[in-house]
């Protein structure tokens, strides 16, 4: 007897019926880059279809985001106001704090997540405080990261997402949030964040490239799976509500491993380089645009519950149609 798996592929209704994995707009997070200035909506050269927005332009953009069915956004601040210890990162009138207040004032049902890091605010571009030798001092950085997270919560963020990779930062952030009564502000921890070259376009967009050296003393070695599991376990122990694997497409095994081992939601960050490679290939006519759907689907199939992706708006068209 011939086995006939093609029987379940005969038409689109049957294919829809037997589909094992589905993408859902409700589990996507759309990143937004906010800049100083007015009337700015500038396309980011290294990331076609992604824009820098000034705060006054957010009304229209938030409207558009909601129209696409997106319910979660992640805010990144871009500023020229930089110093050695990232003071503009925790200023009450900092770029992220103002953006969050503005978005929240619109009264939409939108979950606002903020990236908590120092690299956008330090003049040296590293994700923590440097010691005399140029090494990122872990424990000195914790206090600053905690202050940044608290200032985001005070501005109205629903959830904070530390992306610095310092040891102990989740615990430090949980503690300061709780002490100030923000018990319901969640922590989405960038737990298994690899020292990846796929962040290249983002660093252009966020003006956050390190002025010297690289991030290998704090972000993870791309070769290490087991260490990634340890990072997730430590973050959960410290109070992370969800853990993240980043990047996503070259790390699907790590996503799968985290999904199998841990019972918190697993987040995957489909990063800028992964986005831009595909976008440029599509614009060259080399690939059909449906590859976006296929790429993000692979992240979901690997086990990600939540996907942060610059493709979110593009995918709205496919989700529902597929
Ligand atoms: C900040 C941060 C980075 C990204 C998210 N938060 C860059 C980095 O670690 O250098 C990368 C996101 C992307 O590439 O899309 N630390």
Could you provide a short overview of the structure?
The protein has a single domain (about 20-315), classed as TIM Barrel, CATH 3.20.20.
Folded structure, characterized:
- It is a single chain.
- This protein has 322 residues and is α/β, with parallel strands linked by helices.
- It has a single domain, classed as Aldolase class I (TIM Barrel), CATH 3.20.20.
- The protein is 36% helix and 20% strand.
- It contains eleven helices and twelve strands.
- The protein has an eight-stranded parallel barrel, surrounded by seven helices. A two-stranded antiparallel ribbon has the order 6-7.
- α3 (95-105) packs parallel to α4 (138-155) and α4 packs across α5 (169-179).
- 44% of the residues are buried.
- The mean pLDDT is 96.
- The structure holds ligand PBG.
- The site of ligand PBG has 11 residues, from α6.
- How many DSSP E strands? 12
The main sheet orders its strands as 1-4-5-8-9-10-11-12
Ligand inventory reads: ligand PBG
SSE order, one letter for each helix or strand = HEEEHEHEEEHEHEHHEHEHHEH
**Cα gyration radius (Å):** 20 Å
Major β-sheet profile: 8 strands, parallel, barrel
Protein name: Delta-aminolevulinic acid dehydratase
Pathway: Porphyrin-containing compound metabolism; protoporphyrin-IX biosynthesis; coproporphyrinogen-III from 5-aminolevulinate: step 1/4
Family: Belongs to the ALAD family.
Subunit structure: Homooctamer.
């Amino acid at each position: 007897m011939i086995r006939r798996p093609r029987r379940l592929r005969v038409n689109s209704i049957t294919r829809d019926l037997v589909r094992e994995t589905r993408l859902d707009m409700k589990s996507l997070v759309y990143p937004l880059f906010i800049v100083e200035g007015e009337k700015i909506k500038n396309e980011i050269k290294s990331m076609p279809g992604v824009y820098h927005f000034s705060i006054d332009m957010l009304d229209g953009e938030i409207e558009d985001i909601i129209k696409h069915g997106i319910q979660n956004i992640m805010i990144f601040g871009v500023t020229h106001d930089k110093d050695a210890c990232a003071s503009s990162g925790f200023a009450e009138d900092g770029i992220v704090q103002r953006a969050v207040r503005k978005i929240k004032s619109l009264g939409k049902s939108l979950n606002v997540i903020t990236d908590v890091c120092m690299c956008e605010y330090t003049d040296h571009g590293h994700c923590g405080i440097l010691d005399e030798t140029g090494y990122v001092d872990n424990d000195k950085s914790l206090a600053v990261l905690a202050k940044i997270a608290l200032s985001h919560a005070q501005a109205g963020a629903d959830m904070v997402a530390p992306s610095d990779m310092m040891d102990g930062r989740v615990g430090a952030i949980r503690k300061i949030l709780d002490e100030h009564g923000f018990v319901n502000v969640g922590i989405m921890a960038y737990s298994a964040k690899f020292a990846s070259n796929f962040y290249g376009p983002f660093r252009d967009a966020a003006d956050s490239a390190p002025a010297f050296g690289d991030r290998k003393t704090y972000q993870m070695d791309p070769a290490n799976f087991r260490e990634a599991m340890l990072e997730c376990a430590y973050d959960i122990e410290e109070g992370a509500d969800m853990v993240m694997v980043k990047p996503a497409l070259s790390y699907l095994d790590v996503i799968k491993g985290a999904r199998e081992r841990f019972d918190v939601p697993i987040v995957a960050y489909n990063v800028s380089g992964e986005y831009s490679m595909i976008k440029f290939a599509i614009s060259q006519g080399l690939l059909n645009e449906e590859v976006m759907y296929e790429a993000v689907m692979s992240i979901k199939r690997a086990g990600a519950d939540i996907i942060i992706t610059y493709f979110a708006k593009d995918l709205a068209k496919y989700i529902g149609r597929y």
